[in-house]
Amino acid sequence: MKSMSNTIMVSSKTPSRSSKVSCMLSENPTTKMEEYNIAMKKMMRNPYEDHHDLGMNYTLITDKLIVGSQPQKPEDIDHLKREEDVAYILNLQQDRDIEYWEIDLKSIIKRCRDLEIRHMRRPARDFDPDSLRSGLPKAVSSLEWAISEGKGKVYVHCTAGLERAPAVAIAYMFWFCDIDLNTAYNRLTSKRPCGPNKSAIRGATYDLAENDPWKEPFENLPGHAFEGISNWERKLGNEPFENLPMC
């Protein structure tokens, strides 16, 4: 079924469990989902919620790019292959995220191999803009490589598909698709309501800029800095990607 006009929900038959994890931030949580959503709202300061019990959900952003939540079981991989022609999966979760939701990642990776889907990981810490900022170049590099291969769609996911994954997709559109940051941001969030950290993307763009010892510290720049870049700056910014490993 569809929860929004263009977001697909893949129903999960596995009941959610309520075991506690010490890294989450809420007091006396009753379920993992409530616990996660309280932490997300506190750290990201946005109104969006994950609905893990409804299964994997995702949104087609372009004809080659899908952003969504974590696949929860091997059958989700079958769905992505059969229904969406997915040939690559880019996973942004840390091990602790996967352990928290008790996802059997080995079985998911095995199913990817069986279906000839390339599974890649570029972990970034959830709710952490600094971790996202530092991880964006390598994650976007993997995404750009997969899209350029052209063998099928790329499925980019974190846990809920509301922060890390959309940020990677937005940064890709900004850096490689010749559009400014606000346009990329608005285009994605109009299709998939979510709250990726725009400042982390701006910061990563700043980090990729020419190494100038006199460059003003990012924290001192106005809020609109690095929302748009010229063609020569775009070319300069993309040069570091040539030396990054793809996966």
UniProtKB/TrEMBL annotation:
Q: Name one GO cellular component term.
A: chloroplast
User: What Pfam family is a match for this entry?
Assistant: DSPc
Region annotation Disordered: residue ranges?
Answer: 1-22
Q: Which GO MF terms are attached to this record?
A: carbohydrate phosphatase activity; phosphoprotein phosphatase activity; starch binding
Q: Any keyword Iron-sulfur?
A: no
Keywords on record? Carbohydrate metabolism, Hydrolase, Protein phosphatase
Give the matching InterPro entries. Answer: DSP_laforin-like (IPR045204), Dual-sp_phosphatase_cat-dom (IPR000340), Prot-tyrosine_phosphatase-like (IPR029021), Starch-Glucan_Phosphatase (IPR052832), Tyr_Pase_dom (IPR000387), TYR_PHOSPHATASE_DUAL_dom (IPR020422)
List each copy of the Tyrosine specific protein phosphatases domain by range.
Answer: 134-193
Domain Tyrosine-protein phosphatase residues, every copy:
57-214
Q: What is this protein called?
A: Tyrosine specific protein phosphatases domain-containing protein
Taxonomic lineage from the root = Eukaryota, Viridiplantae, Streptophyta, Embryophyta, Tracheophyta
